[in-house]
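Incident review: delayed structure delivery

Summary: a single-chain prediction request sat in the queue longer than the usual turnaround. Root cause was a stuck worker, restarted by the on-call engineer. No data loss occurred. The affected request and its eventual output are reproduced below so the record is complete for anyone auditing the incident later.

Affected input:
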Amino acid sequence: MYWQVLVFVFFVTFFPIPAILLSFVYPFKRPKERLLIWDRENGTVTLPPRFWGEPEVVPFKDLKVKKIRNIGSFVQFHVLAAFRPSDGQPIEFGLLGDNDKDWAFFCWYMDKTRPLPSGEVFDPYRERDEERRKGELAGRNGWELRDVSEVLQELELLAS
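Output delivered after worker restart:
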């Protein structure tokens, strides 16, 4: 009987200490931002670190995404989740509206052969992205891209 009391006292007093210490330390040590970083230029997605680890950089073509029920909420709805390659843990992202439209937007943004999606946030970068796309396309095909109006003017001069 005496040993049962000692075991009980041990578990009640010493077992919770690591959990209590972790609950005080973790808020100061956890990563401040838990965002996915979509890098169009390099074709990668940076996933936030888990606890104190380093962020994971995953090529967009290798990113596993699925529509799942939200995690840790009483009200159930579907969200998009990217799965971390190292441990398979889901990272929720996207809006609560139409998940298919959200995923289509991310795919459009990451496709370097297409222009940037519409929106004011992309306006400062639109011209530079267009120049980059023209340069890549011209270099790949071995000919220079020109404005349509210039070509039409040349054709008019040749016809007259």
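Verification: Residues 65 and 97 are 17 Å apart (CA to CA).
Action items: add queue-age alerting; document worker restart procedure.
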